[in-house]
Amino acid sequence: MLMAERLSRLGTENAFEVLAEVNKLVAAGRHIISFALGEPDFDTPENIKQAGIRAILENKTHYGPSAGIPELREAVAAYISRTRGIDVSPDEVVITPGAKPIIFYTIHALVNPGEEVIYPNPGFPIYESVINFVGAKPVPLPLLEERNFSVDVDYLRSLITDKTKLIILNSPQNPTGGMLSKQDLEAIAEIAIENDIWVLSDEVYSRIVYDGEFYSIASIPGMKERTILLDGFSKTYAMTGWRLGYGVVNAQLAQQIARLETNCESCTATFIQYAGVEALNGPQDAVDRMVREFKERRDLIVEGLNNIKGIRCFKPHGSFYVFPNVTEACRNLGLKDSKALQQYLLYNGNVAVLPRTSFGVKNVGEKEEYLRLSYATSKENIIEGLKRIKETIEG
User: Fold this and answer.
1) Is the same domain home to 81 and 177?
2) Which residues, in sequence order, are bridge partners of residue 141?
3) Of 84, 74, 92, 85, whose CA–CA distance to 280 is shortest?
4) Which of 61, 152, 287, 323 is the most core-located residue (most Cβ within 10 A)?
5) How many domains does the chain have?
6) Are residues 203 and 316 located together in one domain of the fold?
7) How wide is the angle at C-alpha 76 spanned by C-alphas 71 and 77, nearest 5°?
8) What DSSP element (H or E) covers 199?
9) Domain range spanning residue 75?
10) How much helix, strand and coil, in percent to the nearest 5, is found in the chain?
11) How confident is the chain (395 residues) per 10-residue block, as mean pLDDT?
12) What is the pTM of this model?
């Protein structure tokens, strides 16, 4: 039977495909060290779990408003107002089952077929996937190693056309760990305002920062009304399986995004939203401990990668990823590209990583090869994984 044509334009998230491959090898008796999946290895803090359990026991298990329960929308509004230095009201908040729906709903709500969306490349693959899905034109914005994987604002300006509808930003960034400076954000804001363009700002790693200071483009005067601020609970509170995220947008767009949610899943699970209230309003000690541990792991993995022949690794400012340049390693091993190296490490070294092409098609003229490693795993695994990579690459 024939499927709808639009499905041919829908991409995927390759981390889950690699995970399936890893699981098959593990089932066959192999011991794999995995740096593939971007998921904190910490448990959800106890106070948050108990809040969710309590909500179930109190029978908070019925339908809720599509935009989210008032208590969580109020908590998010207060949190964003405090951390971004802007005034946010609950009617500018939409709660969703995970942060991904905000990407999906934003692009569907704002972008028509044939219009253009600028997105970071390398970047989270779902951006490009949804842009293609709606029939719009994806316009990649290269993130270059020589700029610490930040944005070349002049190049961004050159990409603007009369069809540009949306610019997507992600800081701290997946997969590179790079961060946008306040100066860069101010320049991007100027471009957005001058050309009347929306900005989707993916800030899911905003609390996982090691060096420098996190800035949101929504905090810049004139930007709150044209910014869709995306955040969630998966990374900060180790709540990936809970599926809880949100968007902060102007009230008019918030109504339309909530209407899309009504059509899609009715609402986000009610008892999970009460856990979200506790996450934002309760103690933050567990988050602080997690970030301290991630920083130690970052330093460990960066030092280890830079001691492997043919690899050089930028020290990321945030998130829990490293994006080492493996061009020389590929050349030394006679491998075509990072995808070939990823397979080589998996089957010869029992180490799972992701190739550059899991994060978008290469930019025009891009010749370097990269891998992404998530250090959301124990120090013991990092040490063992680095040992295996070194032995496999150096022989």
Assistant:
1) yes
2) 120
3) 74
4) 323
5) 2
6) no
7) 95
8) strand 198-202
9) 46-281
10) 50, 15, 35
11) 83 76 86 90 96 98 96 98 97 96 96 97 95 96 93 96 98 96 96 98 97 94 97 96 96 95 94 98 97 97 97 96 97 95 95 94 92 96 97 93
12) 0.94
